[in-house]
Amino acid sequence: MRNRNMKYGSLLVLFASALSFAQQATGYVYEDTNGNRRRDRREKGIAHVAVSNGEEVVLTDQYGKYTIPVKDNQAVFVIKPKGYKTPVNENNLPQFYYHYRPEGSPSSYEFKGIAPTGKIPSEISFPLIPQQENSRFRIMVFGDPQPYDEKELDYFRRGIVNEAKNNKQDAVLGISLGDLVGNDLSLQPKYAAVMKEMGLPWYNVMGNHDMNYEAREDQFSDETFRANFGPNTYAFNYADVHFIVLDDILYPDPRDGKGYWGGFREDQLKFVENDLKYVDRNKLVVVAFHIPLIHNEDDFRESDRQRLIRLLGTFPNVLMTSAHTHIQQQIFYSKKDGWTQPLPLHEYNAGTTCGDWYSGTADETGVPQSTMRDGTERGYSHILFDGNRYDIRYKVAGKAENYQIGLYVPKAIPDKGWNTAKILANFFMGSAKDSVLYRIDDGDWKKMTYNETMDPAYAVSVYKWDQASELFPGRRPSDPQLSKHIWTAGFPKKLTLGKHTVDVKATDMFGKEYTATSSFEVQEKVYVP
Fold it and tell me: Residue 18 above 70 pLDDT?
């Protein structure tokens, strides 16, 4: 009898559990003609708009109505269609979602999460506002702001935002690629308030420093991020571009329960699969995440990388964007990586707005120079779209738009004998696929040699800290590392005594040409007595 009661009780538990999973969210996606964010009687629904719970994706019917299952800790959100915009809050954060968290986030967490939402409402509707969307448009991209305290948040404001808000040109939106803050999640609302100054709808990616570290399961590591910014896996459209934003940090690491691992949960990959079913194959798909896919198995789960690449493989036009590394590099995937399209799959691993974590001596604005370990100077990016094509432009903070090459040229070389000195060009947006040329004194252009090496200018800026007898203000920069965008050339053997000029010309993968100029002096060789 006892066993029968136990079985009956177990069935009741399973039945109750099934009921909890069977909740249905329903509502409308509608045209909010008066902008009051309420569905008024005369406001019509919008047909064939995608709505998701973070895994499944459904389309609204002819009246704009949708129904979708929803479970505890999911969000229901609309995938913004072309020709519409979503409302934004006081900090210009897009409001396109509803969190379903009946009991709220764990109260034991250090940083506040989602307040209890209670029972699911009878209607969850999403207002959209018509807008003109040209096929040619621009967005802004920020890598890793990552302030660890309010002083560093002020560095971010003064060093990046104050310039970028006046240099957004015709940008229509912005994206930050994770590590919005550095572990102190109480800074997230303050970061959002700073980003309000950009005056653009701003989307955010979750980074490994944006997590609740008390979480024992990955699905609960984003409670504070979601409370402040919304879902960490979602999608939206603008003109002919479909954007997918993914959280690619598994925490705790499922291998040993310690630290984090790059990768995706099954529900996230299901979302990508289901989302792409409703995307025109002629569109450009832009995928934004934090940790680049290039990392090896120790850093990124290989099966997840392969599956994402396979899901994207039916689209001929794809761009992936990431940050995290605090260097800048162009990464290309081909058939050996599972990519089946004729042209390589491009991932832009963007330089960071905090550079090398706000290190180094101060610049003229009083902000640490923060040059990255590969010699890339801190900055931000513009991505220009034209239909399903794109063009990326990196902007070094505080420098002219055309400053794209850091030159290292010895100040003096000998007039005779063996000379090991090199001309070195660090082309910040470059890759091994690009062409970099140089010339001396307006002579013939000659090819420079691609060389994965350290940037000596950056190395000097680091090692001067070790040679100083007194500490500099601030923090010593990180040690230099091999750069993916350096070219070198030797000096001609026969140069006259005196001043000479060296010009460097680089052409990037988008066909844009940049130049840089420096000078050096040939002096009579001095022999050791």
Answer: no
Decide: 253 and 299 in contact? Cβ < 8 Å. Answer: no
Q: Cβ–Cβ contacts within 10 Å for residue 274, how many?
A: 16
Task: Give dist(CA 165, CA 149) in Å, integer.
Answer: 22
In the block, residue with structure tokens 């890793």 = 144
Residue 263 gets the label, from left (phi > 0), alpha (psi -120 to 50) or beta, of: left
Element (H, E) at 331: strand 329-333
Out of 5-19, 276-290, 304-318, pick the least confident: 5-19
List the one residue out of 168, 126, 105 whose CA is nearest residue 30: 126
Place of tokens 């509608």: 30
Residue owning tokens 């979708």: 68
- Cα–Cα separations (whole angstroms), residue 491 to 358, 449, 455, 506, 519: 36, 13, 18, 19, 12
Burial 388-398 (b: 16+ CB within 10 A, else e): bebebbbbbbb
- Apex 192 CA angle, 190 and 193, nearest 5: 65
Per-residue pLDDT band for 295 (boundaries 50, 70, 90) equals confident
Phi-psi group of 336: left, alpha or beta (phi > 0 → left; psi -120 to 50 → alpha; rest → beta): alpha
Provide the pLDDT for residue 35.
Answer: 85
User: Which tokens sit at 1?
Assistant: 């009898």
Tell me how far apart the 2 most distant CA atoms of the chain are, in Å.
106
Q: How many Å separate Cα 99 from the centre of its chain?
A: 24
Contacts for 434 with CB less than 8 Å, ≥ 6 apart? 427, 506, 507, 508, 509
- Indicate whether 222 pLDDT > 90: yes
Identify the three-state secondary structure at position 359.
coil
pLDDT digits 0-9 by tens, 59-111: 999 999 999 999 999 999 999 999 999 999 999 999 999 999 999 999 999 99
